Amino acid sequence: MTEKFSKMQQQFLCCYPVNKMSWSSVKLPMDWDEQKALIAATCGHPLNERYPVRASYQEAFVKRLMQLLKDHEELHDDLFSSLTSQKCEQQCKDFAYKHYLLLQPDAHITLRESISFVNEGTTGLCTWEAALALADYLMQHSDVVKGKNIVELGAGTGLIGILLKLPALGFDAGQILLTDGSASCVQLMRDNVALNFPETPKEAIPQCAQLRWDEVKDFPWQQYAKTDLLLAADVIYDDSQFDALLDALDHLYTSRGNCLEMLLASTVRNVDTLHKFMEQLAKREYKVTPCANVSACVSHFCRDHTAAVQIISIKR
Ligand SMILES: C[S@@+](CC[C@H](N)C(=O)[O-])C[C@H]1O[C@@H](n2cnc3c(N)ncnc32)[C@H](O)[C@@H]1O
């Protein structure tokens, strides 16, 4: 019976918008056993019991389910209890968890994230659509990371680095260094790395460090392996940061004799902003190649279909 609700389960655990969930898999009338099974697969899932998703999200989900059932069925007690279980505990908290279930192979990533888009002066305390799209792209093109030492810029919650080091996925990447300019993000990504690799030796997990793009020359690069691949997601939104980012790229490409590739994923919010960045790349003699589109329909990360994400490869 749980298999029947596997899509709902995957969507619930990563807080996919309630109104876009696969409600068509909930066939009415739904007897008590089925109601109980759906609640067990979602609110009662062991991951949610240990690391709960946002209380307001769980409430919205259960209310929608009650609405759906109310004219057909007597409601199971578990629906009412799941409405109240987290509310009191979580009321004042700014952070909650999301769980990304990767159905094939069987693996998951748990991230602690801010429940608001901007918190502690940064946008990086929650995971953005572009990071999910880049994660999907890498799942489908694992050859681009095989054996490579990777640095992620503006890594936020740390999703990509955690994904690339999950043993079940066999990416076989080299050293992974997750960086961000915000000290709060670096602390959060460290916590998320520790959460996902509780017993893995330090050498086999992503490393985390604070790196502001305008301080790239002062970073202790000698402590890390030589970078082969740069990754970044959703860092092209503020044109006041373009010069700092481009200067950082110049420094990194030059220090690697231009034997460096960057994969950059950007949500297309403002075409002019992206265009301006592309022009700056061309002026600095970078070659940009668009990467294959990754359909949200086959996403491992329940991506929202509304946001278009562009992924490009940058070489020089
Ligand atoms: C929209 S968030 C994206 C976070 C993550 N990559 C994702 O897609 O979920 C932008 C990230 O870039 C980081 N950032 C912005 N300006 C930066 C700078 N000048 N130096 C380093 N990091 C910066 C922010 O701290 C934030 O974590």
Name some characteristics of this structure.
alpha/beta, two-stranded antiparallel sheet, 34% helix, binds S-adenosylmethionine, Methyltransf_16, SAM-dependent_MTases_sf, Protein-lysine N-methyltransferase EFM3
Summarize the structure.
It contains 11 helices and 9 strands. By secondary structure, the chain is of the alpha/beta class. The site of S-adenosylmethionine has 21 residues, from helix 7.
Question: How does this model look, in words?
Answer:
Helix content is 34%, strand content 16%. The chain is built from eleven helices and nine strands. The chain has helices at residues 6-13, 32-41, 46-50, 55-69, 77-84, 87-90, 129-140, 159-164, 183-196, 242-255, 271-283; strands at 95-102, 107-114, 150-153, 176-180, 207-210, 229-233, 261-267, 287-290, 309-315. The protein starts with 5 loop residues before the first helix and ends with a strand. The model has no long low-confidence stretch (mean pLDDT 92). The site of S-adenosylmethionine has 21 residues, from α7.
Please render the helix and strand layout as text.
Layout: H1 6-13, H2 32-41, H3 46-50, H4 55-69, H5 77-84, H6 87-90, E1 95-102, E2 107-114, H7 129-140, E3 150-153, H8 159-164, E4 176-180, H9 183-196, E5 207-210, E6 229-233, H10 242-255, E7 261-267, H11 271-283, E8 287-290, E9 309-315
Parallel strand pairs: 3-4, 3-6, 4-5, 6-7
Antiparallel strand pairs: 1-2, 7-9, 8-9
Helix pairs in contact: 4-5
The structure holds S-adenosylmethionine (SAM).
Pfam families: Methyltransf_16 (PF10294)
Protein name: Protein-lysine N-methyltransferase EFM3
Organism: Drosophila madeirensis
